[in-house]
Structure formats: structure tokens, C-alpha cells
Amino acid sequence: MKDGGVPDGGVPDGDKGAGRDRPAARGPALRANDPENTRRNILDIASREFAEKGFTGARVDEIAARTETSKRMIYYYFGDKEGLFVAVLEEAYKSIRAREAELKLDHLSPEDAIRALVGFTFDFQNDNEQFVRIVMTENIHYGAHLGSSRILQDLNVSVIDTIRSIYSRGVAEGVFRPGIDEIDLHQTISALCIFNVSNRYTFSRIFKRDLTDPEVRARRRASVIETVVRSLKA
């Protein structure tokens, strides 16, 4: 099985339970009295490892070797490999939701607000391939880890509230047609934006069009925004 085009084989890695300490691969050891930096360092390395190798392929031994801490410390902060992956998922979703909150869309017209939201979503996903790959990994595992995190459930309420607010204003002003479900709209936006990342390598090879080319990306971005806006127009 593959996670976003990378091997996700079921090779036993001995990551369950406590393991012996491994020395840091590089850099000075993090201070024991700086837990936030220690946790951040672990999450940064783990995010790259899970994005590159998937949940099954990633190994806590390797994550520990690449961090400035030990395997024992990883288990101390996150419990086990699954706990670490859940924390990585939480950080991934926090990053996009926090950036969305900075958009300040309430002062824009409904059409301009939806254009800004779609444009942001497209840019964020295209600029953060690691985010897309981590989400794809969780889907390969049937969303098995999402249910164990209340944070993940709560985090994604905000984007639906934002879409509902924009759409309701648009309907009230006669700009958008009524009868569209806000979750359906969110799904449409996400699907159109994520494809440029999730399928960029296969699509580029099959159709000989480099989806990472700036001109191709800009054209696709404009097309996605226009597609969403036209689907809403009254």
C-alpha cells in the first residue's frame, strides 16, 4: 500500500512500547527544561517522516535519530507511535485553520469573501504538500486516528461556520442561489484545491503538463475560484 505515492509497507518496526534510547543524529540536545521546544522539534521531524513514508513506513527509531532528543522522550510526550501521529494530524489541521482565521472575511462582499477563501485554500495546499500527504495517509488508514482526538473534531468546525456565514450573506443579498449545503460546498472547495497536489505527479506525467509550473498553477487557481463562484451564483 502507498501513502501519496510512497511505500507504506507493513514492515515490523518495533515502535510499540518502550525502546532503548538513541543518540541524537545531529545538533545539541534540547534542554530538559524547555518542553515546548522539545515537543516542537519532535513534531517537526515526525511530520516530515510520516509525510514521506506514511504511518506504517515511518519508524519512531528513525524519528528519534533525526531529532535532538531520544526515543524515550518521544514516548514520554506522545505515548506511542499512534499518539505521535495523532499529534501530527492535530498540528497539520491547526495550521490551516489558524491561517484561515487570519483572513478577516467579514468585511468583504460575499463573492469577494468566497474568492478569498478558495484562493487561500488553493495556495495553502499547494504550498504545503506535507499537509496533503499527511491527510492522504490518514485516509489510507480509513480515518482510524481521527476518532481518538477531540481536538481534531473541534478544529474543523470553524471552517464550516465561516462558509455558512459567507453563503448566508450571499443568499440574503441575492448574490448566491439558495439550497446549497455548507459541508457540500466545503467538500467542493477542498476537492478542487487538493487535486493539484495529491495527483500532481501522475497527472503531470500522463498529460505532459507540469502542475508545479507557476503559469500552470496560476491558471488552475483562477479556474478553481471561478468554478466555485459560478456554482454559487443566483
Automatic annotation (TrEMBL):
Which stretches are tagged as biased composition: Basic and acidic residues?
13-24
One Pfam annotation, family name?
TetR_N
* InterPro entries from the UniProt entry: Homeodomain-like_sf (IPR009057), HTH-type_TetR-like_transc_reg (IPR050109), HTH_TetR (IPR001647), NicS_C (IPR041474), Tet_transcr_reg_TetR-rel_C_sf (IPR036271)
Segments of the chain annotated as binding DNA: 59-78
Q: According to the UniProt record, where is the region Disordered?
A: 1-38
Domain (HTH tetR-type): give its ranges: 36-96
Q: Which UniProt keywords apply?
A: DNA-binding, Transcription, Transcription regulation
**Domain of life the protein comes from:** Bacteria
Gene3D superfamilies listed in its UniProt record: Tetracycline Repressor, domain 2
Biased region (Gly residues) positions are 1-12
Q: Which GO terms describe its molecular function?
A: DNA binding
Protein name in UniProt? TetR family transcriptional regulator
